Amino acid sequence: MRCQADRELRAIHNRAGLVTPDGMPLVWLARLRGFRHVRRVYGPDLLLEVCQLSEQTGWRHFFYGGAEGVPEALVNNLKEKHPSLQVAGTYSPPFRPLTPEEDDAVCKRICEARADVVWVGLGTPKQEHWMATHVGRVGTSVLIGVGAAFDFHSKRKRQAPKWMQASGLEWFFRMLSEPRRLGPRYLRNNPAFLWHVLLQALRLKRYSME
What we know:
The protein is α/β, with parallel strands linked by helices and 210 residues long. The protein has helices at 2-5, 7-15, 24-32, 43-57, 70-81, 100-113, 126-134, 149-153, 162-166, 170-177, 179-201, and strands at residues 60-65, 86-91, 117-121, 143-145.
């Protein structure tokens, strides 16, 4: 929905190496259109799956994002599940834009850590903009935005039950958990999403990828 109003963000998604559906409504729509193989790629689950695989591959991981102490707590919990996980480093950015000097120092830090994968947990659209401007600057081309996964796996916030995730109701659980922050977002975006789907279904509007 943000991409409908933000051409720059839409361009970032179009240039990305891989974009996956993180919400069940997108999965359902894809299947209705004949793409029966489509499944949800849930950021927190993707993070765990890749960390598990990394115990065999030896991939090194850098965790960028979260409030102070969150990436460290995240790593501690991941290491409990995957003791041989190779952690290249962590960084919790301040809640303000970094100066050019600070940004250069962070890029140098990630490069020197020799990370194979940089996980970015800044939330949308901040994480997408960060990844787009740092590809080629941090020593790896694999940057993966996983939204609230840092907060969930650090135990800072609760995840919705599996049945709510599978039934497309995770947004409702999160809105009840953080009504002041997420309430306006969902109450604005969800009806707008349904409206756009209806316009497309009735062939009253076409949506360009560009």
